[in-house]
Amino acid sequence: MTDRFRAAMASGPLLLDAAMGTRLVARGLHLETDDPALWTLTAPEVVAEFHRRDVRAGATVLLTNTFGANHAWLRRFGRADALEPINRQAVALARHEAGPSRYVIGSIGPTAVDDPRSLLDQAGLLVESGVDGLIFETHRLDQAEQALELVMPLGNIPRLVSLYQWPEPIAPAVRRLVGRGASAIGLNCVIGMEPALQVADSLRAVTQLPLIVKPSASRPGVVPASPKSFAAAATAPRIRGLAPILVGGCCGTDESYLAALSDAWYHQTGSCPPAR
Predict the structure, then answer these.
(1) Quick check: helix, strand or coil at residue 249?
(2) What is the pTM of this model?
(3) Is 252:216 a contact under the CB 8 Å cutoff?
(4) What is the pLDDT of residues 52-102, one digit of tens each?
(5) Could you give the CA distance from residue 253 to residue 47 in angstroms, rounded to a whole number?
(6) Please, which residues bridge with residue 105 across strands?
(7) Does the domain formed by 2-269 have CATH 3.90.1750.20?
């Protein structure tokens, strides 16, 4: 599957999923005492439901609900013992909803880098459980570099890197990530599709790697952009010009944002969207 995923990335665009954490918060998750990754065990039906909704909206790539599923972070909740069951269950849930024609990539957040052994343990579990790739999301550049180096022993699994902010100038940062084996690079959590695509323009000017664009719809306390306005900047010509590219939604987005992206792309290209 990893070779098939590499080929799919190279021929993109691919539609990524929407936010998991903010949807779980809307369902009652309290971040002060709980974590989205723990819901993989305590409420797997809810996690599976959001994966299912994203697939129906057109997503072809699902991220596992494992952003904080590392020893260092789970220890805050007294659940470091849950590292293995969370990561294995998260892959199983995403894979079931993805089916044979879509892809599942293992999400690893920046807190894993604080404990190198923890990061390697989590990444190893995700690979053993059958992910098509790993994504290091919401990282700083230095964290992403360290993560890429730590997972080198895991072999040729695709390694995607998504920073929350790119340093200037961009070109040296891109070279550093490429030199450490990044298979795709991009950003998430920036507010708004247009600012995210502007960064993608800068990245495309210096690399032919697949790009990742996964912006947020809003920040806490601010009314989020509507699905239609969120998707408006991601026109078919713009996305084709940046391809190969993977596009989805981060904080504040749900399946309606993916549907708006899918509808815009396929309407403008004149082809049919995936079945929902």
Answers:
(1) coil
(2) 0.95
(3) yes
(4) 999 999 999 999 999 999 999 999 999 999 999 999 999 999 999 999 999
(5) 15
(6) 63, 133
(7) no
